[in-house]
Amino acid sequence: MIALAGGVSLRSPGALFIEAEGALVVADLHAGYVDTLRHRGHALPPVSDEGLLRALDALLASLAPRRVVVAGDLVHGAAAAHQRVGGESALDALLARFEGRALEVVLGNHDRALTGALASRGVTVRDEAVVGPHRVRHGDEAPEALLAMRGEACARRGYLVVGHHHPALRLTGGPGVRARLPAFAWGEGFIALPALSPFALGSDLLRRDYAAALEAVLPAREMETAVVIGEEVRRTGRLDAVRGAISSRGPRRR
Amino acid sequence: MLRKHDPEHVLLRAQRHTLWTSLEGPRAESTLADRAARRWVRVVTGAPSPLAVPAMAAVARDSLRPDDLEASLLEAASALYARSLAHGGP
Questions:
Q1: What does each C-alpha distance from A241 to A108, B74, B80 come to in angstroms?
Q2: ipTM of the complex
Q3: Are the beta carbons of A245 and B86 separated by less than 8 Å?
Q4: pTM, entire model
């Protein structure tokens, strides 16, 4: 866990907890990912969202939030609302986890087609969630718009919290130690959450082309990073310094 | 997309598994049965055969992976943080 100013903390495996509001913010769950791909004709076995549900259960049990805000892409596609053979839909299995808690879903690019299905299940659907001085959006807006919203968040001494970008960081250690890990990227007035979906490994922030959209909102010299390893969130440093540290050790293998 | 950017993704592994079990398995079994019926001659070579190199590389790669990958990654993250601080820090 990494504690930021104002009682905000970054939690494994990719969540934000705002203590004063008792609010848990998660992003990019992409529930029903496999259901959606199978519906599109991909030959995949019927893998469930077990890993995602386990991660959510652990977060809900340890933090006991009064309020849960999903920063977009709750589901991967419309097929998540289709009933599975002999069971409930991926969407219903997910929503059952939040019973008894105030759930707000900020619409992301993957679930805008499901607005009706969510509303008919009593889920509060928004374009932006307000949590104290913080604003939660999906983050698929134009960088200029996000930059302006970040400015407003700074003026309120809060954060603009987004998902969508699936930040990750490639980490290499000794022989055989190499992995791409979900990462938090944050700085003054801005936090980008990693995807909670275990199927979305994310975009490596070390690659300037992948990180360009985030850097347009928060420059690398102001962007702190941390990776999720098991139950821990570990700081890795400011993005420009991380890049410098890695490039000084010679060419990086992709 | 996954094949290009993440060839070891769990879904691709599952797809390979499915293809193997539902389509390729029987064909491979029949090929192996055919090979097993042939006469085998064991020859000890003076040096590794070029044909053995991919298998040797795979074996070596497996043995390099640490037992506790999570602990090794935590160590790597701490080392990277220390180096990034030295490069201009927070």
A1: 31, 19, 10
A2: 0.88
A3: yes
A4: 0.80
